[in-house]
Amino acid sequence: MKFAAARPFAEPEKATRKLIEIANTVEPDQDGRIPIELINMPFLRAAGSADEYRSGIARAVANGWLWRHECGVYVKFTPAGADLFA
Q1: Who contacts 14 (Cβ-Cβ below 8 Å, separation ≥6)?
Q2: Distance between first and last Cα of the chain
Q3: Which of 46, 47, 66, 86 has the greatest CB tally within 10 Å of its CB?
Q4: pTM of the model
Q5: What's CA 26's distance to the chain center, in Å?
Q6: What is 12-83's CATH number, 3.30.420.10, 1.10.10.10, 3.20.20.70, 2.40.340.10?
Q7: How far apart are alpha carbons 64 and 69 in whole angstroms?
Q8: 85, 65 Cβ separation under 8 angstroms
Q9: Which of 68, 53, 49 is nearest to 16 (CA)?
Q10: Rounded CA separation 68/48 (Å)
Q11: What DSSP element (H or E) covers 20?
């Protein structure tokens, strides 16, 4: 018997890929910064949860694809992250 639906981003790798994909669609503002709210809301609307979002961002930073400002307000693509879409 199955009571809960499968989560589409339960695996951190899938959450990370979705977050990177969303970030790539956002036009960066000054100095290449991408406001975090422009990634967060589309991810949550795509059926992601807050925990999946946090693990995806953490993994993207650990993989060296995104750089996150210490205050958490914005992210930037690193050269390795930009190469994913080259």
Answers
A1: 8
A2: 45
A3: 66
A4: 0.88
A5: 11
A6: 1.10.10.10
A7: 13
A8: no
A9: 53
A10: 20
A11: helix 12-25
